[in-house]
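Async update (no meeting this week)

Hi team, since we skipped the sync, here's where things stand on the single-chain job. The sequence we agreed to prioritize is pasted below, unchanged from the tracker. I ran it this morning and attached the output directly underneath so nobody has to dig for it. Comments welcome in thread, and please keep replies under the output.
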Amino acid sequence: MSEARPSAFLRFLAFILVTGGVAAGGWVLWMKQGQPRSAKPAAVKRDAAVLTAKVTKENYALDLDAIGTVRAFESIDISANVTESVTQLSFDDGDFVKKGTLLAMLSDAEEQAMLASAKATLAEEEREIARLQKLVSDGAAPEARLAERKTLADIAKQRILEAEAKLADRRITAPFDGWLGLRRISVGALVSPGTIIASLDKIDVVKIDFAVPETYFGSVQPGTKITAHAEAAAGRRFEGTVSRLDSRIDPVTRSVAARAEVPNADLLLKPGMLVMVTLRVEPKLSLSIPERALVPVGAKAYVFSIEKDKAKRSEVKTGRRKPGYVEILGGLGEGQLIIADGLVGLQDGATVKIAGDYGGPVPAFNPEQTTSAEATP
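Output:
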Protein backbone atom coordinates (compact mmCIF):
# COMPACT_ATOMS: atom_id res chain seq x y z
CA MET A 1 0.00 0.00 0.00
CA SER A 2 2.92 2.31 0.66
CA GLU A 3 4.27 1.60 -2.85
CA ALA A 4 0.95 2.46 -4.65
CA ARG A 5 0.80 6.01 -3.31
CA PRO A 6 4.05 7.26 -4.98
CA SER A 7 2.99 5.58 -8.24
CA ALA A 8 -0.35 7.47 -8.33
CA PHE A 9 1.34 10.73 -7.44
CA LEU A 10 3.91 10.28 -10.18
CA ARG A 11 1.20 9.61 -12.77
CA PHE A 12 -0.71 12.80 -11.77
CA LEU A 13 2.49 14.87 -11.93
CA ALA A 14 3.28 13.51 -15.39
CA PHE A 15 -0.26 14.44 -16.58
CA ILE A 16 0.17 18.01 -15.38
CA LEU A 17 3.52 18.40 -17.12
CA VAL A 18 2.25 17.02 -20.43
CA THR A 19 -0.87 19.18 -20.40
CA GLY A 20 1.12 22.33 -19.61
CA GLY A 21 3.62 21.61 -22.38
CA VAL A 22 0.91 21.24 -25.02
CA ALA A 23 -0.76 24.47 -23.98
CA ALA A 24 2.55 26.35 -24.02
CA GLY A 25 3.37 25.03 -27.47
CA GLY A 26 -0.02 26.09 -28.85
CA TRP A 27 0.37 29.58 -27.43
CA VAL A 28 3.81 29.98 -29.00
CA LEU A 29 2.49 28.75 -32.34
CA TRP A 30 -0.47 31.19 -32.18
CA MET A 31 1.87 34.08 -31.39
CA LYS A 32 4.04 33.24 -34.36
CA GLN A 33 1.09 33.01 -36.74
CA GLY A 34 -0.47 36.26 -35.45
CA GLN A 35 2.71 38.32 -35.65
CA PRO A 36 3.01 40.35 -38.86
CA ARG A 37 5.85 39.31 -41.06
CA SER A 38 6.97 42.87 -41.68
CA ALA A 39 6.15 46.26 -40.08
CA LYS A 40 6.43 48.54 -43.08
CA PRO A 41 5.05 52.14 -42.76
CA ALA A 42 1.74 52.89 -44.50
CA ALA A 43 2.21 54.36 -47.93
CA VAL A 44 1.21 58.01 -48.50
CA LYS A 45 -1.90 58.26 -50.58
CA ARG A 46 -1.06 59.57 -54.01
CA ASP A 47 -3.00 60.80 -57.02
CA ALA A 48 -6.11 61.32 -54.91
CA ALA A 49 -9.08 62.56 -56.98
CA VAL A 50 -10.49 65.70 -55.36
CA LEU A 51 -13.04 68.44 -56.01
CA THR A 52 -11.86 72.00 -55.53
CA ALA A 53 -13.37 75.35 -54.61
CA LYS A 54 -12.06 78.88 -54.43
CA VAL A 55 -12.04 81.06 -51.36
CA THR A 56 -14.62 83.77 -52.02
CA LYS A 57 -16.23 86.58 -50.10
CA GLU A 58 -19.76 86.15 -48.74
CA ASN A 59 -22.07 88.21 -46.58
CA TYR A 60 -22.14 86.78 -43.07
CA ALA A 61 -24.69 89.18 -41.64
CA LEU A 62 -26.22 87.99 -38.39
CA ASP A 63 -29.85 87.02 -39.00
CA LEU A 64 -32.32 87.70 -36.21
CA ASP A 65 -35.72 86.00 -36.44
CA ALA A 66 -38.83 87.30 -34.69
CA ILE A 67 -42.59 86.84 -34.77
CA GLY A 68 -44.48 89.92 -35.95
CA THR A 69 -48.04 91.15 -36.31
CA VAL A 70 -49.27 93.13 -39.30
CA ARG A 71 -51.03 96.42 -38.61
CA ALA A 72 -52.60 98.87 -41.03
CA PHE A 73 -50.62 102.01 -41.75
CA GLU A 74 -53.76 103.95 -40.77
CA SER A 75 -56.82 102.35 -39.23
CA ILE A 76 -60.11 103.58 -37.82
CA ASP A 77 -63.56 102.31 -36.86
CA ILE A 78 -65.99 104.73 -38.46
CA SER A 79 -68.64 105.91 -36.02
CA ALA A 80 -71.13 108.75 -35.63
CA ASN A 81 -70.55 111.81 -33.43
CA VAL A 82 -74.25 112.18 -32.55
CA THR A 83 -77.26 109.99 -31.90
CA GLU A 84 -79.42 109.92 -35.03
CA SER A 85 -80.98 107.49 -37.46
CA VAL A 86 -79.21 106.54 -40.70
CA THR A 87 -80.88 107.93 -43.84
CA GLN A 88 -78.29 106.99 -46.48
CA LEU A 89 -75.33 104.64 -46.95
CA SER A 90 -73.03 105.33 -49.91
CA PHE A 91 -70.56 102.43 -49.89
CA ASP A 92 -70.34 98.67 -50.30
CA ASP A 93 -68.27 96.12 -48.42
CA GLY A 94 -64.58 96.30 -49.30
CA ASP A 95 -64.75 99.52 -51.34
CA PHE A 96 -61.67 101.67 -51.82
CA VAL A 97 -62.52 105.28 -50.95
CA LYS A 98 -60.68 108.57 -51.17
CA LYS A 99 -60.34 111.05 -48.35
CA GLY A 100 -63.55 113.09 -47.98
CA THR A 101 -65.81 110.54 -49.72
CA LEU A 102 -69.35 110.59 -48.27
CA LEU A 103 -70.04 107.27 -46.57
CA ALA A 104 -73.28 107.79 -44.65
CA MET A 105 -75.85 110.46 -43.86
CA LEU A 106 -77.87 110.83 -40.68
CA SER A 107 -81.22 112.51 -40.14
CA ASP A 108 -80.69 116.31 -40.32
CA ALA A 109 -84.13 117.93 -40.79
CA GLU A 110 -83.85 120.01 -37.61
CA GLU A 111 -80.36 121.23 -38.45
CA GLN A 112 -81.44 122.17 -41.98
CA ALA A 113 -84.25 124.28 -40.51
CA MET A 114 -81.84 125.95 -38.09
CA LEU A 115 -79.50 126.78 -40.96
CA ALA A 116 -82.28 128.26 -43.06
CA SER A 117 -83.52 130.38 -40.15
CA ALA A 118 -80.01 131.67 -39.39
CA LYS A 119 -79.48 132.61 -43.05
CA ALA A 120 -82.82 134.44 -43.17
CA THR A 121 -81.99 136.37 -40.01
CA LEU A 122 -78.62 137.37 -41.43
CA ALA A 123 -80.21 138.59 -44.65
CA GLU A 124 -82.69 140.72 -42.70
CA GLU A 125 -79.92 142.21 -40.54
CA GLU A 126 -77.79 143.03 -43.59
CA ARG A 127 -80.71 144.90 -45.21
CA GLU A 128 -81.31 146.85 -42.01
CA ILE A 129 -77.62 147.72 -41.76
CA ALA A 130 -77.62 149.05 -45.33
CA ARG A 131 -80.66 151.25 -44.57
CA LEU A 132 -79.22 152.59 -41.30
CA GLN A 133 -75.86 153.41 -42.87
CA LYS A 134 -77.62 155.87 -45.22
CA LEU A 135 -79.61 157.40 -42.39
CA VAL A 136 -76.54 157.75 -40.18
CA SER A 137 -74.63 159.46 -43.00
CA ASP A 138 -77.54 161.95 -43.35
CA GLY A 139 -77.69 162.43 -39.57
CA ALA A 140 -81.22 161.01 -39.33
CA ALA A 141 -80.30 157.98 -37.15
CA PRO A 142 -77.84 157.49 -34.28
CA GLU A 143 -74.68 155.41 -34.82
CA ALA A 144 -75.52 153.30 -31.77
CA ARG A 145 -78.48 151.84 -33.60
CA LEU A 146 -76.25 150.90 -36.55
CA ALA A 147 -73.76 149.22 -34.21
CA GLU A 148 -76.58 147.24 -32.62
CA ARG A 149 -77.65 145.88 -35.99
CA LYS A 150 -74.09 144.89 -36.85
CA THR A 151 -73.91 142.93 -33.61
CA LEU A 152 -77.14 141.11 -34.48
CA ALA A 153 -75.72 140.31 -37.91
CA ASP A 154 -72.61 138.80 -36.29
CA ILE A 155 -74.82 136.65 -34.07
CA ALA A 156 -76.71 135.42 -37.16
CA LYS A 157 -73.42 134.48 -38.81
CA GLN A 158 -72.38 132.46 -35.77
CA ARG A 159 -75.72 130.64 -35.83
CA ILE A 160 -75.10 129.73 -39.45
CA LEU A 161 -71.71 128.29 -38.51
CA GLU A 162 -73.29 126.37 -35.65
CA ALA A 163 -75.96 124.88 -37.92
CA GLU A 164 -73.36 123.93 -40.53
CA ALA A 165 -71.25 122.20 -37.87
CA LYS A 166 -74.25 120.18 -36.74
CA LEU A 167 -74.97 119.24 -40.33
CA ALA A 168 -71.36 118.14 -40.79
CA ASP A 169 -71.75 115.78 -37.82
CA ARG A 170 -74.57 114.13 -39.73
CA ARG A 171 -72.46 113.57 -42.85
CA ILE A 172 -69.90 110.83 -42.24
CA THR A 173 -66.92 110.97 -44.63
CA ALA A 174 -63.66 109.03 -45.06
CA PRO A 175 -60.82 110.67 -43.07
CA PHE A 176 -58.12 109.20 -45.38
CA ASP A 177 -57.67 106.99 -48.44
CA GLY A 178 -58.22 103.34 -47.66
CA TRP A 179 -60.19 100.14 -47.95
CA LEU A 180 -63.50 99.70 -46.14
CA GLY A 181 -64.37 96.57 -44.22
CA LEU A 182 -67.79 94.99 -43.81
CA ARG A 183 -70.81 97.25 -43.32
CA ARG A 184 -72.18 96.86 -39.78
CA ILE A 185 -75.49 98.77 -40.01
CA SER A 186 -78.40 99.35 -42.37
CA VAL A 187 -80.44 102.36 -43.43
CA GLY A 188 -82.89 103.33 -40.69
CA ALA A 189 -80.71 102.12 -37.83
CA LEU A 190 -80.33 104.41 -34.84
CA VAL A 191 -76.64 105.05 -34.26
CA SER A 192 -74.83 106.85 -31.47
CA PRO A 193 -71.22 107.68 -30.63
CA GLY A 194 -69.35 104.36 -30.43
CA THR A 195 -71.59 102.51 -32.86
CA ILE A 196 -69.27 101.10 -35.57
CA ILE A 197 -70.55 101.69 -39.08
CA ALA A 198 -67.53 100.11 -40.84
CA SER A 199 -63.75 99.90 -40.53
CA LEU A 200 -61.34 101.80 -42.76
CA ASP A 201 -57.73 100.67 -43.26
CA LYS A 202 -54.86 102.03 -45.29
CA ILE A 203 -52.88 98.91 -46.24
CA ASP A 204 -50.93 99.73 -49.40
CA VAL A 205 -48.16 100.22 -46.84
CA VAL A 206 -48.42 98.24 -43.60
CA LYS A 207 -46.69 98.29 -40.23
CA ILE A 208 -45.25 95.15 -38.67
CA ASP A 209 -44.74 95.12 -34.91
CA PHE A 210 -42.26 92.67 -33.37
CA ALA A 211 -39.92 92.37 -30.39
CA VAL A 212 -36.13 92.68 -30.44
CA PRO A 213 -34.12 91.02 -27.60
CA GLU A 214 -32.28 93.42 -25.35
CA THR A 215 -28.92 91.91 -26.38
CA TYR A 216 -29.48 93.11 -29.97
CA PHE A 217 -30.77 96.55 -28.99
CA GLY A 218 -27.61 98.29 -30.19
CA SER A 219 -27.60 96.45 -33.53
CA VAL A 220 -31.16 97.31 -34.61
CA GLN A 221 -31.80 100.92 -35.52
CA PRO A 222 -34.32 102.82 -37.66
CA GLY A 223 -33.43 101.98 -41.25
CA THR A 224 -32.39 98.37 -40.57
CA LYS A 225 -33.60 96.13 -43.41
CA ILE A 226 -36.10 93.37 -42.68
CA THR A 227 -37.70 90.53 -44.61
CA ALA A 228 -41.18 89.30 -43.71
CA HIS A 229 -43.05 86.25 -44.92
CA ALA A 230 -46.35 84.64 -44.03
CA GLU A 231 -47.84 81.26 -44.83
CA ALA A 232 -51.16 82.96 -45.56
CA ALA A 233 -49.50 85.14 -48.21
CA ALA A 234 -48.59 82.30 -50.56
CA GLY A 235 -45.01 82.18 -49.35
CA ARG A 236 -44.25 85.69 -50.64
CA ARG A 237 -41.40 87.64 -49.07
CA PHE A 238 -41.82 91.32 -48.32
CA GLU A 239 -38.94 93.75 -47.90
CA GLY A 240 -39.10 96.71 -45.53
CA THR A 241 -37.20 98.81 -43.02
CA VAL A 242 -37.42 99.40 -39.29
CA SER A 243 -39.11 102.76 -38.71
CA ARG A 244 -39.30 103.07 -34.91
CA LEU A 245 -38.12 101.47 -31.68
CA ASP A 246 -40.00 101.83 -28.43
CA SER A 247 -38.49 104.07 -25.76
CA ARG A 248 -38.71 101.38 -23.08
CA ILE A 249 -37.47 97.80 -22.63
CA ASP A 250 -39.96 95.32 -21.21
CA PRO A 251 -38.51 94.20 -17.83
CA VAL A 252 -40.34 90.85 -18.06
CA THR A 253 -39.35 89.72 -21.58
CA ARG A 254 -36.15 91.82 -21.74
CA SER A 255 -37.05 92.95 -25.24
CA VAL A 256 -37.95 96.21 -26.94
CA ALA A 257 -40.93 96.69 -29.25
CA ALA A 258 -39.97 97.58 -32.82
CA ARG A 259 -42.05 98.66 -35.80
CA ALA A 260 -41.22 98.26 -39.48
CA GLU A 261 -42.90 99.69 -42.56
CA VAL A 262 -43.39 97.34 -45.50
CA PRO A 263 -44.83 98.15 -48.97
CA ASN A 264 -47.92 96.04 -49.69
CA ALA A 265 -48.98 97.06 -53.19
CA ASP A 266 -50.88 93.82 -53.93
CA LEU A 267 -52.62 93.93 -50.52
CA LEU A 268 -51.61 90.38 -49.56
CA LEU A 269 -50.73 91.40 -46.01
CA LYS A 270 -53.82 92.03 -43.90
CA PRO A 271 -54.05 93.70 -40.48
CA GLY A 272 -53.75 91.14 -37.70
CA MET A 273 -51.83 88.62 -39.82
CA LEU A 274 -48.98 86.65 -38.20
CA VAL A 275 -45.65 86.94 -40.03
CA MET A 276 -42.09 85.80 -39.51
CA VAL A 277 -39.61 88.68 -39.54
CA THR A 278 -35.91 88.31 -40.35
CA LEU A 279 -33.50 91.16 -39.63
CA ARG A 280 -30.04 91.30 -41.10
CA VAL A 281 -27.97 92.88 -38.37
CA GLU A 282 -24.22 93.40 -38.22
CA PRO A 283 -23.58 93.02 -41.98
CA LYS A 284 -20.15 91.52 -42.59
CA LEU A 285 -18.42 90.62 -45.88
CA SER A 286 -15.86 87.90 -45.12
CA LEU A 287 -13.89 85.10 -46.74
CA SER A 288 -15.95 81.96 -47.11
CA ILE A 289 -15.37 78.29 -47.95
CA PRO A 290 -17.61 75.18 -48.08
CA GLU A 291 -18.09 73.80 -44.59
CA ARG A 292 -17.17 70.28 -45.67
CA ALA A 293 -13.65 71.49 -46.57
CA LEU A 294 -12.83 71.81 -42.86
CA VAL A 295 -10.76 69.07 -41.21
CA PRO A 296 -11.22 69.34 -37.43
CA VAL A 297 -8.40 68.07 -35.23
CA GLY A 298 -9.21 68.53 -31.58
CA ALA A 299 -10.03 72.17 -30.98
CA LYS A 300 -8.34 73.29 -34.20
CA ALA A 301 -9.53 73.37 -37.81
CA TYR A 302 -7.48 72.73 -40.93
CA VAL A 303 -7.98 73.11 -44.67
CA PHE A 304 -6.13 71.46 -47.55
CA SER A 305 -5.05 73.83 -50.29
CA ILE A 306 -3.34 72.92 -53.56
CA GLU A 307 0.20 74.02 -54.36
CA LYS A 308 1.98 72.50 -57.38
CA ASP A 309 -0.44 69.55 -57.56
CA LYS A 310 0.19 68.69 -53.92
CA ALA A 311 -2.08 68.96 -50.92
CA LYS A 312 -0.92 71.40 -48.26
CA ARG A 313 -2.60 71.38 -44.87
CA SER A 314 -3.03 74.78 -43.22
CA GLU A 315 -4.63 75.79 -39.95
CA VAL A 316 -7.50 78.26 -40.30
CA LYS A 317 -9.54 80.38 -37.92
CA THR A 318 -13.28 80.11 -38.41
CA GLY A 319 -16.12 82.49 -37.57
CA ARG A 320 -19.83 82.51 -38.30
CA ARG A 321 -21.58 79.77 -40.23
CA LYS A 322 -24.50 79.54 -42.60
CA PRO A 323 -25.98 76.46 -44.30
CA GLY A 324 -23.14 74.70 -46.09
CA TYR A 325 -20.51 77.42 -45.63
CA VAL A 326 -18.20 78.79 -42.94
CA GLU A 327 -16.55 82.17 -42.45
CA ILE A 328 -12.73 82.23 -42.53
CA LEU A 329 -11.08 84.80 -40.29
CA GLY A 330 -7.48 83.79 -40.94
CA GLY A 331 -5.23 81.26 -42.66
CA LEU A 332 -6.46 81.65 -46.26
CA GLY A 333 -6.55 84.32 -48.92
CA GLU A 334 -9.25 85.33 -51.40
CA GLY A 335 -9.12 83.31 -54.62
CA GLN A 336 -6.99 80.55 -53.10
CA LEU A 337 -7.78 77.03 -54.38
CA ILE A 338 -8.78 74.56 -51.68
CA ILE A 339 -9.94 70.95 -51.60
CA ALA A 340 -13.65 70.69 -50.82
CA ASP A 341 -14.28 67.00 -51.48
CA GLY A 342 -12.08 63.89 -51.45
CA LEU A 343 -10.53 64.48 -48.05
CA VAL A 344 -10.82 60.90 -46.74
CA GLY A 345 -7.30 59.56 -46.16
CA LEU A 346 -5.69 62.68 -47.64
CA GLN A 347 -2.34 63.59 -46.10
CA ASP A 348 -0.18 66.66 -46.16
CA GLY A 349 2.10 66.55 -49.22
CA ALA A 350 0.07 63.97 -51.13
CA THR A 351 -0.16 64.36 -54.90
CA VAL A 352 -3.72 65.16 -55.94
CA LYS A 353 -5.64 65.07 -59.19
CA ILE A 354 -8.37 67.66 -59.68
CA ALA A 355 -11.54 65.87 -60.80
CA GLY A 356 -13.73 68.97 -61.01
CA ASP A 357 -15.27 71.86 -59.09
CA TYR A 358 -17.31 71.48 -55.94
CA GLY A 359 -20.97 72.00 -56.81
CA GLY A 360 -22.18 73.28 -53.46
CA PRO A 361 -23.95 71.75 -50.45
CA VAL A 362 -26.93 69.46 -50.79
CA PRO A 363 -30.24 71.34 -50.25
CA ALA A 364 -31.82 70.86 -46.85
CA PHE A 365 -34.47 68.16 -46.63
CA ASN A 366 -37.97 69.57 -47.04
CA PRO A 367 -40.71 67.03 -46.27
CA GLU A 368 -43.35 69.20 -47.96
CA GLN A 369 -41.46 69.18 -51.26
CA THR A 370 -40.99 65.39 -50.97
CA THR A 371 -44.67 64.88 -50.39
CA SER A 372 -45.67 67.06 -53.33
CA ALA A 373 -43.16 65.30 -55.61
CA GLU A 374 -44.53 61.88 -54.68
CA ALA A 375 -48.07 63.08 -55.27
CA THR A 376 -47.22 64.32 -58.77
CA PRO A 377 -47.85 61.53 -61.34
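Quick observations from my side:
The longest strand covers residues 62-79.
The chain has three domains: 48-60+285-357, 65-73+202-281, 79-191.
Reply here if anything looks off.
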